[in-house]
Amino acid sequence: MILAIDFDGTIVSNCFPEIGEALFGAIESLITLKENGHKLILWTCREDSPERFYLEEAIHFCLTRGLTFDAINENLPESPFYHMGDSRKIYADYYIDDKALLPTWNAYLDN
Q1: 61: domain CATH number?
Q2: Has residue 64 got a pLDDT over 70?
Q3: Rounded average pLDDT over 20-48
Q4: Based on the structure, what is the number of domains in the chain?
Q5: What residue numbers bound the domain in which 61 lies?
Q6: Sequence-separated contacts (24+) of 29-34 with Cβ below 8 Å
């Protein structure tokens, strides 16, 4: 399963442009999902700029907690639309975003 996960408000509390505290169970749940073979895409509006590296800060935050992604704001090579070039819409089976669906992260820890 391919999951596209937002950052601000979904993995961490929404304090943009700062990085908020990790939401309870979010990092651990995503690590467990990845260990169980699911593909994770960091799907965020954060972008780096000459003034500040907003996206790099989010990636570093996750990396220092043991969470890596299979892609960042781009489709995976196995996506049915990968060959069509860079698309603003990421192909995923599920999109996890605080503006749409925010799970209880610890519900995934035992799966």
Answers
A1: 3.40.50.1000
A2: yes
A3: 96
A4: 1
A5: 2-108
A6: 29/103, 29/105, 29/106, 29/107, 29/108, 29/109, 30/5, 30/67, 30/105, 31/66, 31/67, 32/108, 32/109, 32/111, 33/3, 33/108, 33/111, 34/67, 34/68, 34/70
